[in-house]
């Protein structure tokens, strides 16, 4: 009697390559429009292009899924990408709440680290009224923020499961690098770290993307749902990014964003610590099983 051979799933590289080709073509086209339009990232037209560009990963999914026939099984596609959850509603709701709090708490911790290193000075006393006003205004537009971050997360939630045959760690690492490099057309134009040389800015943001992307990936896989990652991504864009301007002033460093933002070195520190806690407590091991 022979024992049946178990075959591990393989990475569908043609689908991955097609998705990346379409996604990156779209984001570079958007970046070129801003560049040849004058390169003013603060203009209204650039803001509109940036919002449209967040849907280039979704475009990559739709075109690839159409070409490969995946779109003919929409229920399977929605389940694979986590739009339809495979876990219980209470678990998804709990992890979505965790996603809402994740980036703001990490951003506050990063500012504390930066303050201890002399890169940021908190206002004394803390402007609680301004902080409450900022939170109220950002939560008011939070649904729009989720609509925009869904454009990206739908694409990454399509990509990550296809990379998991490489192993959970490698899949998260590769998807994080892709996410960081994906932003390069705008990072090179000074979007994330004004004043930093372009190549260094891309490297810095890619490091941040690997770390934050691993946390989003954990939320996504632990919940069996895309929504915690969508909410966490929106909270990072709208709430976490607004803390430095409200709570204090940066030091005299040449690139303040690198010393005060979640995507700067203090953010790397606190995200690495949290990832270490998740690893030590076996949370990633549970996902791998």
TrEMBL record:
Membrane-crossing segments per the record: 16-36, 48-71, 92-122, 128-151, 163-186, 198-219, 226-245, 265-284
Protein name in the entry: Type II CAAX prenyl endopeptidase Rce1 family protein
Pfam families attached to this UniProt entry: Rce1-like
Keyword Membrane: yes
Keywords: Membrane, Transmembrane, Transmembrane helix
Organism whose genome encodes this protein: Nonomuraea insulae
InterPro entries: MmRce1-like, Rce1/LyrA-like_dom
Occurrences of domain CAAX prenyl protease 2/Lysostaphin resistance protein A-like (ranges): 139-239
């Amino acid at each position: 009697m022979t024992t049946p051979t178990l075959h591990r799933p393989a990475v569908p590289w043609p689908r991955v390559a097609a998705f990346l080709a379409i996604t990156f073509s779209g984001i570079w086209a958007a970046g070129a429009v801003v560049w040849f339009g004058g390169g003013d990232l603060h203009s209204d037209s650039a803001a509109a292009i940036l919002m449209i560009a967040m849907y280039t990963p979704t475009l990559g999914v739709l075109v690839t899924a159409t070409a490969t026939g995946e779109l003919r099984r929409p229920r399977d596609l929605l389940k694979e990408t986590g739009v339809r959850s495979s876990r219980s509603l209470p678990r998804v709701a709990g992890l979505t709440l965790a996603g809402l709090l994740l980036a703001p708490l990490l951003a506050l911790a990063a500012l504390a680290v930066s303050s201890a290193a002399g890169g940021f000075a908190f206002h004394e006393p803390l402007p609680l009224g301004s902080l409450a006003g900022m939170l109220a205004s950002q939560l008011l537009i939070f649904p729009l923020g989720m609509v925009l971050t869904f454009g990206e997360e739908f694409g990454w939630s399509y990509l990550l499961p296809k990379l998991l045959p490489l192993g959970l760690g490698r899949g998260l690492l590769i998807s994080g690098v892709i996410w960081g490099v994906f932003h390069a057309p705008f990072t090179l134009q000074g979007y994330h770290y004004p004043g930093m040389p372009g190549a260094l800015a891309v490297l810095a943001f890619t490091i941040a993307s690997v770390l934050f992307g691993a946390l989003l990936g954990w939320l996504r896989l632990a919940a069996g749902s895309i929504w915690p990652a969508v909410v966490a991504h929106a909270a990072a864009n709208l709430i976490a990014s607004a803390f430095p301007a409200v709570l204090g002033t940066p030091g005299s460093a040449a690139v303040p964003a690198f010393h005060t933002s979640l995507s700067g070195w203090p953010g790397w520190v606190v995200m690495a610590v949290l990832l270490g806690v998740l690893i030590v407590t076996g949370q990633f091991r549970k996902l791998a099983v």
